[in-house]
């Protein structure tokens, strides 16, 4: 089983050693961890001196991790609590007064990590479309905001593909809604297997999907979209046999907002539908 990562920030090296002794069997212990989102930390144990020192970094990290809970356990002496009540509730989730007792420490960690685990499950479930297992619209919008910001900051290309099943209503009407659901599942799975790790697929509406492709310009994205179109066209969808999709493609412009990008790719899809379906249309 994967061990949870606990970062320890202690001014007093003896206490640091003691914690290591108590915890290293059960947890991955990190000293001098970098407090940024790249280093995944599940919980922080910190003393009062270090808490003052790292307060702003911890606040920032906790904010970035939301709605996932990043627990902070303060270890302190009674006389060393200098924080006022409001501050401590904002920043710290539990307190142990020294001397550290192993069983007390383990109980606190168990409960704090259990709460974190629940928030991770909730976060995951609220991001995923239950039918297809791909991201839902809410999660995609959040992800897209971050990707647009990254692309603009580093002046990198970013493209999107928006696609929709052709005459899907007829499939539902002919074979029933359950078969329609199976088509959606199979379609999402085929396309997911067709993408790079860095691409993201989301179900945007009933039978509309969005793909975000970082580091891809319009020309290359058009090639990907065409391959996807072909792949879907040539896949056997069991009872339904064949389906086709129409796809719109566009690339992020320098001053685009997320809404403008999505509006343009929606326009491209609309053109693909109106010019005969089962095709890719690019708009810039
Ligand atoms: P077009 O080629 O213009 O896209 O035609 P269409 O029939 O695909 O489009 P339309 O918007 O008329 O119909 C979409 C259908 O998708 C209607 C709706 O019942 C169905 N749909 C939406 N969500 C689901 C779902 O979760 N499961 C199933 N089975 N069908 C769904
Ligand atoms: Mg459709």
UniProtKB/TrEMBL annotation:
Q: Name one GO molecular function term.
A: diguanylate cyclase activity
State the superkingdom: Bacteria
Q: Which PROSITE patterns match?
A: GGDEF
- Top-level EC class as recorded in UniProt: transferase
Write down the chemical reaction(s) this protein catalyses.
2 GTP = 3',3'-c-di-GMP + 2 diphosphate
Annotated GGDEF domain ranges read 156-284
* NCBIfam families on file: GGDEF
| Name recorded for this polypeptide | diguanylate cyclase
**Species this chain originates from:** Nitratiruptor tergarcus DSM 16512
């Amino acid at each position: 089983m994967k061990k949870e990562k606990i970062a320890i920030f202690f001014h007093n090296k003896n206490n640091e050693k003691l914690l290591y002794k108590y915890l290293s069997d059960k947890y991955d212990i990190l000293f001098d961890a970098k407090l940024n989102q790249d280093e995944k930390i599940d919980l922080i144990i910190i003393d009062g001196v270090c808490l003052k020192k790292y307060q702003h970094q911890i606040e920032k990290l906790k904010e970035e991790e939301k709605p996932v809970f990043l627990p902070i356990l303060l270890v302190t002496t009674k006389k060393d609590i200098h924080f006022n009540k409001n501050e401590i509730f904002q920043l710290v989730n539990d307190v142990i007064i020294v001397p550290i007792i192993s069983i007390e420490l383990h109980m606190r960690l168990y409960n704090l990590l259990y709460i974190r685990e629940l928030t991770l499950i909730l976060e995951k479930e609220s991001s995923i479309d239950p039918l297809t297992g791909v991201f839902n619209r809410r999660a995609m919008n959040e992800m897209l905001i971050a990707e647009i910001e990254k692309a603009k900051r580093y002046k990198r290309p970013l493209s999107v593909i928006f696609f929709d099943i052709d005459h899907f209503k007829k499939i539902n009407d002919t074979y029933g809604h359950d078969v329609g659901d199976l088509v959606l599942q199979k379609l999402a799975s085929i396309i997911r297997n067709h993408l790079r790790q860095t691409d993201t697929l989301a179900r945007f509406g009933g039978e509309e999907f969005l793909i975000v492709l970082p580091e891809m310009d319009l020309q290359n994205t058009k090639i990907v979209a065409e391959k996807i179109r072909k792949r879907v066209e040539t896949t056997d969808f069991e009872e339904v046999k064949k389906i086709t999709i129409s796809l719109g493609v566009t690339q992020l412009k320098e001053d685009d907002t997320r809404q403008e990008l999505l509006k343009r790719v929606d326009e491209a899809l609309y053109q693909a539908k109106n010019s005969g379906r089962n095709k890719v249309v690019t708009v810039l």
